[in-house]
UniProtKB/TrEMBL annotation:
The keyword Cytoplasm applies. Involved in the cellular defense against the biological effects of O6-methylguanine (O6-MeG) and O4-methylthymine (O4-MeT) in DNA. Repairs the methylated nucleobase in DNA by stoichiometrically transferring the methyl group to a cysteine residue in the enzyme. This is a suicide reaction: the enzyme is irreversibly inactivated. This is Methylated-DNA--protein-cysteine methyltransferase. The active site is at C127. GO terms for cellular component: cytoplasm.
Length: 170
């Protein structure tokens, strides 16, 4: 059974989707690869208490690591990439090439980028923390302005992070 709710956030409305009570989607408005609303199930805000609490704490700067059960629907390769995204710490950035190396597929940076773009659980599965090898903010399903906002927000919450970011990133 699928249920959903919508919540306001600093990056705009977020639609949360659960499959059998487990978070399976977090979508922004106008997000690339966002499924049709008819697939979200019935509206039920009560089913998302812990998710809402952790998102509120994250956006308040009080939470740097989510601890929620997640349900990924994707290919085994996509699931590997999405799981590896969860290992990127708050305020850390990595390149698509580095993420490919981390999953043991050093020549698969393009495939990693495609899987990253289809991440169904934005923010909580931090695909925004992946950048291009040149240091540019290449691609983000929620739009580059949102990616920049999330990275700046996280960078501000990590002591010394502003000094650690290479010049010209964003």
């Amino acid at each position: 059974m699928r249920t959903h709710t919508t919540v306001d956030s600093p990056v705009g409305p977020l639609t949360l989707v659960a499959a059998d009570g487990v978070l399976s989607g977090l979508y922004m408005t106008d997000q690339r690869h966002r499924p049709g609303e008819e697939s979200f199930g019935e509206r039920d805000g009560l089913a998302f208490g812990p998710v809402l609490e952790q998102l509120a704490a994250y956006f308040a700067g009080e939470l740097t690591e989510f601890d929620l059960p997640l349900s990924f629907a994707g290919t085994p390769f996509q699931q590997t990439v999405w799981t590896a995204l969860c290992d990127i710490r708050f305020g850390e950035i990595v390149t698509y090439a580095e993420l490919a190396r981390r999953i043991g597929r050093p020549t698969a940076s393009r495939a990693v980028g495609l899987a990253n773009g289809k991440n169904p659980i934005s923010i909580i599965v931090p695909c925004h923390r992946v950048i291009g090898s040149s240091g540019g903010l290449t691609g983000y399903g929620g739009g580059l302005d949102r990616k920049r906002h999330l990275l700046d927000f996280e960078r501000a919450g990590v002591p010394g992070a502003a000094r650690a970011v290479p010049a010209g990133l964003w």
